[in-house]
Amino acid sequence: MLLRILSIVFVLYSSAVLGAESSGENNAAKPLVHLYTYHYKPPFLIDTHAQQGFYYDVVDYFNEQSELYQFTVTYLPRKRLDYLLGQQQLNGIVMGVLPKWFDDTNEQNYQWLPGFYPDKDAFVSLTSTPFKYINQASLTGKVIGCVAGHYYVNVNEAVEKELAQRIDTVAEYQVLQLVKKRRADFGLISESTFKYFAKQSDFTGNFHVSQKSHDEYSRRAFITSTQPKLHEEIRRLFALAQSTGSWQSLRKKYE
Q: Which of 9, 175, 196, 197 has the fewest CB atoms found within 10 Å of its own CB?
């Protein structure tokens, strides 16, 4: 009888240990990978508390497709991002950028990924006083609304030559307000952001978008980690999103 009781106790103990080990394996957190962005604007970041915006949709997609990593969105101001890059303290992907914005036109400093979001920097004015951009000479005598800290080719040079005046503000919605209040002749705003604002029910203002944009590009990303395994997984996820049409599906609700 004693032997039988000891056998039962052993079986129960072994089951408990194996169950705990199995549970620990199942609940073990996957390594966290950050999707960094310094663009706090729609459609990319709409509401960080509610986790709404294109990058949150991308994170959901990546988390569904990856068995190796857990992805999360992390906003960093540009100066903070640059500092942490210099200190090699970032682990993940910097989203929605171009090599020339990071002085890496030869793509030697970072591991760059293919474009995933076509976009433009558009000249936006009032329909009552439409601005038509042709070249730098078009800027002469104009007051231009811009986001502080952003560099715009030809615009910055025109301002330095005192051919035009630049008024800086905190974000692109405020750029539109400068135009609406006629404090600026026109403003520079990402087309993706302008389209998002234009779809909102409380959006007011009759705006004109110049047919010729300031710049056209496809937003890209680069990897900040040095881990080969992570590189491979991120490239796989980007390729999967491209081949399955998922990038287009994720963008669709914001276009």
A: 9
